[in-house]
Specification:
429 residues; alpha/beta; 16 helices; 44% helix
Length: 429
């Protein structure tokens, strides 16, 4: 008997109510992710990939019409909010699409990772109590300016004041003038600053916790992790921020990692490093990964099984070999046809005609029929069922008998585009 899947999404349907009408974001989503498996969701922007993942972890703001999400033996859609908070981070973590907006710009890397690990009780016992940590923080904040002054006096002959030194001198001068002209207000201000200093010093991290956080950064191959831990997000490159996000999500050792466009806006070299890092995390810890992307090349490199989404539904699903080498749904074949090949000369880049339908006014029947070269009256009136083609390969189309030859389908797309152009129809990639 095969092992039960870690995650199973069944007949998920969701909409967002708006003044113009209901945005039907998810129509009929079904997929499973096994333990230790990397499963990919691909499709054009607006197809419902990110909404599906946010619904799984309970962060979607849409109205769920029907469906179930099982994580192990537990149903998540009916789980209380307190239970979902416990599951997020502990059992399911998510790498969001843009690490710069996902990280808090006001806190250092170590503070943000510490917050996540502390919330989910993944930190070892602290070595120091609160008063001892406050003392360490006060001592550290005093030692920095003193060290700066000592270095200035030691190198006084060749000293050139920096911008920070000038600001410090102006601040001290202003404080002296304020103290001499408004002593009562100055005393109140000094007291306020002292209290703020004491309170901020209480947030000093324990040395044991800092060591754990640095080790987590080292796990994701961040160079000089001790220095990076003290930095703010704006001081890091895009690839480094993405590594910090992965370290933060993996710090609680989740069973399932959701990666929403993890390589967006990264150069090719950094993309390759992030891909290898995620593979190593899966291989070393057995973490299942849900990869959300529109990059077919990334899917081919990482995933074992793939689901192709279109207009809120998964229209084809199978192993990576089945999807890349013998796709059957015309939309999937159109995506493959649109990928440029090295060494291939083309007069123009092949496209899928038309555009993704408006989710407020989805077409009847098959949602892809306005863009499909095989569309007929049946496609316009009846939604095609998901048909099992064998070996776990599923496809949703009324004309699977016409899609056995991928080259013939590609020729059909080219003829369809030429026909639309000749009629003056709208051709939008």
């Amino acid at each position: 008997m095969s092992e039960a899947p870690l995650l199973r999404v069944s007949d998920l349907k969701l909409h967002f109510p708006t003044d113009e009408g209901d945005v039907r974001a998810l129509e009929n989503v079904n997929f499973e992710i096994g333990r230790g498996e990397i499963f990919g969701l691909v499709g054009e922007s607006g197809s419902g990939k990110s909404v599906s993942s946010l619904t799984v972890i309970g962060l979607s703001t849409g109205n769920i019409d029907s469906g179930q999400v099982h994580f192990g033996d537990e149903e998540l859609l009916s789980a209380p909010k307190e239970r979902m908070r416990a599951i997020r981070g502990n059992d399911i973590s998510m790498i969001f699409q843009e690490p710069m907006t996902a990280l808090n710009p006001l806190y250092t890397v170590e503070k943000q990772i510490h917050e996540v690990m502390s919330l989910h009780e993944k930190l070892p016992p602290a070595k120091l109590n609160a008063l001892e940590r406050m003392y360490v923080g006060m001592r550290t904040s005093i030692s920095k300016p003193i060290s700066r002054l000592i270095s200035i006096f030691q190198n006084l002959r060749g000293y050139r004041p920096s911008g920070n030194d000038i600001i410090a001198i102006l601040f001290l001068l202003s404080a002296y003038l304020l103290l001499s002209s408004a002593p009562i207000f100055s005393i109140f201000l000094i007291g306020f600053l002292l209290v703020s200093w004491l309170l901020s010093s209480m947030n000093t991290l324990d040395s044991v916790h800092v060591e754990v956080i640095v080790e987590r950064l080292r796990d994701v191959q961040i160079p000089n992790p001790s220095a990076v831990a003290k930095m703010y997000p704006h001081e890091l490159s895009g690839g480094m921020r993405q590594r910090v996000m992965i370290a933060m999500m993996m710090a609680c050792e989740p069973k399932l990692l959701i990666a929403d466009e993890p390589t967006t806006a990264l150069d090719v070299t950094i993309q390759s490093q992030i891909v290898e890092l995620m593979k190593e995390l899966r291989n070393n810890r057995g973490t299942s990964i849900l990869l959300i992307t529109h990059d077919i090349g990334l899917v081919a490199e990482m995933c074992e099984r793939v689901g192709v989404m279109y207009a809120g539904s998964i229209v084809e699903q199978g192993t990576i070999e089945q999807i890349l080498e013998s796709p059957r749904m015309p939309y999937t074949i159109g995506l493959m046809h649109s990928i440029p090949s090295i060494g291939e000369t083309r007069d123009k880049l092949p496209i899928i005609p038309g555009q993704v339908p408006d989710p407020i006014n989805l077409p009847s029947g098959c949602k892809f029929h306005p863009r499909c070269p095989f569309a007929d009256d049946k496609c316009q009136s009846q939604n095609p069922p998901m048909i099992d083609l064998g070996d776990g390969h599923l496809a949703s189309c009324h004309h699977l008998d016409k899609t056995e030859s991928m080259s013939e389908v590609k020729d059909a797309f080219d003829s369809f585009v030429s026909e639309l152009e000749a009629r003056g129809g709208e051709i939008l990639a």
